[in-house]
Amino acid sequence: MMQLDNLYQEVILDHYKNPQNKKLESDNDAQVHHINPSCGDEVTLGVKLEGEKILSVNWDGVGCSISQSSTSIMSDLLIGKSLEEAAVISESFLQLMQSKGSQDGDETVLEDAVALAGVSKYPARIKCALLGWMAFKDASVQALSKKTN
Ligand code: ZN
């Protein structure tokens, strides 16, 4: 079992038990399905845009607490942001996950996602934490290209 700060453990468990935006909508601009075979995590994620603004991030999934809570936290964080802001937040989270435990994360940028900082010490779990974020990136690129085509 991973040793995470108790407060952070609570944030992760809270999002796992009460996932945010975990209800797929039928009118997404793009929807993707991503899997993490090494752990068995799955996420289906939809995005709705209005111009460059993220109107909705909605999803469904199964898997470990890290993958599901990370997707929940991300959806909360990115809804209402611009795609540019979302890219900055996603890059910050990716850097945190690649930090091998050397960073705490910038809470002003990442908010609740800093709770996942400890995951960066466990290489096998980083893909769990990144699953939803990669799905968002994929879906938002597809949604954007549909709108501009
Ligand atoms: Zn997992």
Automatic annotation (TrEMBL):
Pfam families: NifU_N. GO terms for molecular function: iron ion binding; iron-sulfur cluster binding. Residues 8-128 form the NIF system FeS cluster assembly NifU N-terminal domain. CDD domains: IscU_like. One of its GO terms (biological process) is iron-sulfur cluster assembly. This is Unannotated protein.
